[in-house]
Amino acid sequence: MTGKAGDYDVIVIGGGVNGTGIAMDAAGRGLKVLLCEMNDLASATSSRSSKLIHGGLRYLEHYEFRLVRQALAERESLLANAPHIMWPLRFRLPHQPHLRPAWMIRAGLFLYDHLAKRERLPASRSVTFTPDDPLKPEITRGFEYSDGWADDARLVVLTARKAEEMGAEVLTRTRCVRAERGEDTWQVTLLDTFTGDSRVVNARALVNAAGPWVSSLFDTTMGQQAPRMIRMVKGSHIVVPRLNRDSEAYILQNEDERIVFVIPYEDHFSLVGTTDVDYDGNPAEATISDEETRYLLDIVNHYFRHQLTPKDVVWSYSGVRPLMDDEEDSAQKASRDYSFEVDAPAGKTPLLSVFGGKLTTFRKLSEAATDKLCQYFPEAGGRWTRTAVLPGGDFESQPQLQETLQERYPWLPELLASRLVRCYGTDSYRLLGASESLNDLGQHFLGTLYEREVQYLVRHEWAITAEDILWRRTKQGLYASQREVDKLDHWLENREKLAGPRHCTAG
């Protein structure tokens, strides 16, 4: 690791969406910030979500009106700040009278339309399904409403990049192995898990944003009891060949009162999820069970003409959500809201711990957490992130940006241009640079992935392994054979040997 022992205002532990959000917000208020993540950015829960920016229609049934209102307001902000990795999505809800009566759904959608100001998205409406729809012919009526889609892993990476642009130091593959509270500072020992080198740093405040590890970190790192425990709930998803006809998504009701999303994914697939199962174990080792796979397939097969079997599953993933333990009987009823615990004994440096939360409200959570931190830093600036555009997000529309990109690089294949816009926005120009032909992009690894993009991800987005690149920075892993994965890992290992110590410059 580079750098020497030094002092920071704030050290943030955890490189998920909440940790990077707090680091970005605090750095933008003028605080000196260090963020450490024991693995890759978004390597756990934050890359294993349903990838939605939504208010949570089903949360209305649990009377979580404040959470839904806040999430709907955040939906508008996020769609404006990151139009390359987030965009509007129209959902269709097939009506099943024996599950929820039409009046109840209409009432819920009315609330959903009006709980918060809606500027970018059209209102809900009733729809009639036709033979052209992929649903079974007996399903003829339904409803339609708007929400948003997000590339969750890229959201985390771009938030980390914004944090670094604002002056934060971001260290991946760096584990916090010990944190000791002194009178004026926290003394934190960091371990580079690649080199084995350690480093001791000091901070005037410490943030525990370790997600599923937030409670266990107290015991393993600080030698004290957690102020509260979290409820770990596993949510699993499967990816199957495309079921969606066009760009519409589906929200399917089930007999157990749960809902399942079927979302158009990448260019050729549909994403199906999620489950809600209480989990006890290492969050990093969570995988989908055969029972969960059957559960998701059974619901899809109940609604869609095209019938699926486990052999149709192209990919699956599971994430462990660190929910507040509100003692609800079922995992699906556990609140998706968040809370903070601030431990600041008289005369001692503060510790802020984040419990719960959801992808859509990460910016609001980060703002509220930073507000609490700034009570200890009177010199800090005010709120600023509501209109903060993430790197590459300074453009009006994806089609317009793709058109101008292909005018500048007329040799660029349309499929590659489309993916670059969806991943990098205006940073696509920075990635492509002075390239004048496809050959200038260097070695072709697989799909639409070329050497120049890999180099960009290593230099500017903290990518180290093939998994980082294929599943979190891009989704090209959907098209990769094991031989191609091994080839990319070999290339990265050789580059690492030649390059020497790790270093990433996002600016």
Give a structural overview.
This is Glycerol-3-phosphate dehydrogenase. Its cofactor is FAD. Belongs to the FAD-dependent glycerol-3-phosphate dehydrogenase family. Residues 9-333 form the FAD dependent oxidoreductase domain. Residues 385-488 form the Alpha-glycerophosphate oxidase C-terminal domain. The model is unreliable at 1-5 and 327-335 (pLDDT under 50). α8 packs across α9 (414-424). It is globular and about 70 Å long. Strands 3, 4, 5, 6, 11, 12, 13, 14, 15 and 16 form a 10-stranded mixed β-sheet that branches. Strands 1, 2, 7, 8, 9, 10, 17 and 18 form an 8-stranded mixed β-sheet that branches. A two-stranded antiparallel ribbon has the order 19-20. It has 3 domains: 7-45 and 154-229 and 336-387, 3-Layer(bba) Sandwich (FAD/NAD(P)-binding domain); 86-150 and 231-322, D-Amino Acid Oxidase, subunit A, domain 2 (D-Amino Acid Oxidase, Chain A, domain 2), CATH 3.30.9; 398-499, Alpha-glycerophosphate oxidase, cap domain (Helicase, Ruva Protein, domain 3), CATH 1.10.8.870. The chain is built from 13 helices and 20 strands. β19 and β20 (449-450) form a beta hairpin. The chain has helices at 17-28, 65-81, 102-114, 152-165, 216-222, 290-303, 362-373, 398-408, 414-424, 427-432, 451-460, 466-473, 482-499, and strands spanning 7-13, 33-36, 52-53, 86-94, 125-128, 141-150, 169-171, 174-181, 186-192, 198-208, 230-241, 249-253, 259-265, 269-273, 277-278, 315-324, 338-343, 351-356, 444-446, 449-450. 30% of the residues lie in helices and 24% in strands. The two termini are 19 Å apart. With 507 residues, the chain is α+β, with helices and mostly antiparallel strands.
